[in-house]
Amino acid sequence: MLRDIVLTPELGGSELVLVDVNEKALGAMAKMAERVANVRGFPMTVRATADREEGLKGADYVIISVARDKNRLWKLDFTVPMKHGISHPLGENGGLGGLFHTLRSAWLVMEIVKDVERIAPDAWVLNFTNPESRVCMAIARYSKVRAVGLCHGLLEQRRRLGEFLEIPVEEMKFLASGLNHFTWIHEMKRRSTGEDLYPLLRRKLVDAPADFLPLCRFLFETFGLFPSPSDNHCGEYVPYATEFTPPRDLARFAEGAWRADRMKRVARAGETGEGLDEVAPPMASGERAMPIIAALETGKKSIEAAVNILNRGSMPGLPDDAIVEIPATVERGEIRGRKMPPLPQGVVAMLKAQVRVQKMVVDAAMTGDKGLALQAALTDPAVPSAKAAKAAFDELFELEADFLPQFA
Questions:
Q1: Which long-range contacts (CB under 8 A, 24 or more apart) does 136-139 make?
Q2: Is residue 130 part of a domain?
Q3: How many domains does the chain have?
């Protein structure tokens, strides 16, 4: 975000307010922000506070990316269902792991959103917190703030398929729709010529290595469109994912050392400028928060490939109150979803099933209804066993009780 804001001239003269409960990290990031702005010659004032209410006063845009004890709890979301015999690829956005991640994240984000609603009711909320579609659904169902959810998943799949097809990523043009981490590519074209790249993809997949996106390939062969963003993310919504892609490597949950090292480098860059270009290179990150804010602020049009917003008729076959990931136009202070072509019948069936689960999970998270949370688990297509699900459900509630205050 710091890299991007100083590369967005329309936002010159802004005040950036950083808010965190971790005051040591907050101080380091504030110095980093000041350093980046000074070195890049960008006119911006920086303020840091651990008082969220103070930070929100006068806010026009609120970017939310939050978690509590992220990796330890994510590991529990992943390992406890596995212990009881439920094999799943990730444990973040779907299945039992996604259920508990939602119960924590939706409540945490909504505490912030309620403050936004009271202190800065006209502000736009830009959410990065996962599970993206479920958190955005909580905001839509339980507040009146204007919000959009952002995720780089489609951009990552565009990069991955561009490398596979040996086509520069900037030449890859996608049109996709679906749910966050479960989107489907209607069109895949070469930007400069308009060439349809699906025939080339089909030819190259014939000789592709067996470990190149095997689940995405199976879904493509079966339903006719290539999904996004990856096997492990898409696999959270189908019960047969681990037939194609292995469960997440447990070693990847141990990010403590990596995070500590990165914060040391951030602190050093902020204090002395050493390693600044490594920590915050002078190039856009690819995330879309700042371009969207610039478009909302200036009224200039911006075409976005993927945002998470209320459906409102953009995707045929899904409820209007579903949170869908679709292309959108940002213009004149609004974010308007593009009307999308119909998806294959089987894909719509899978998406509708997830929307029903998401509504139950969100309502359970916001009302503290444990019975509804269990119903959501037992109606999730990615949960294959009632006995295993109930045992894992009870254990996770016990282990994560301190992070689920709404159920107390």
A1: 136/308, 136/309, 136/323, 137/322, 137/323, 137/358, 137/359, 137/362, 138/106, 138/109, 138/110, 138/362, 138/365, 138/366, 139/109, 139/110, 139/113
A2: yes
A3: 1
The owner of tokens 């009146």 is 144
Residue 72's alpha-carbon distances to 67, 132, 250, 283, in angstroms, are 11, 20, 11, 32
Q: What residues are paired with 63 via a beta bridge?
A: 126
Summarize the chain as % helix, strand, coil (round to 5).
Answer: 50, 15, 30
247 DSSP assignment: P
| Region of 328 on the Ramachandran plot (φ > 0 left; ψ -120 to 50 alpha; else beta) | beta
Rounded to a whole number of angstroms, the distance between the first and last alpha carbons of the chain is: 36
Is 381 a member of any domain? no
CA distance 307 to 180: 9
Domain limits at 21?
2-149+251-290
Q: What is the pLDDT of residues 24-69, one digit of tens each?
A: 999 999 999 999 999 999 999 999 999 999 999 999 999 999 999 9
Position 132 in a domain: yes
User: CATH number, domain at 256?
Assistant: 3.40.50.720
Distance CA 240, CA 216 (A): 12
Query: What's the CA gap between 184 and 198, in Å, rounded?
Result: 13
> How many angstroms separate the CA atoms of 305 and 155, rounded?
9
Q: Give the predicted TM-score (pTM) of the model.
A: 0.97
Q: How far apart are CA 384 and CA 36, in angstroms?
A: 49
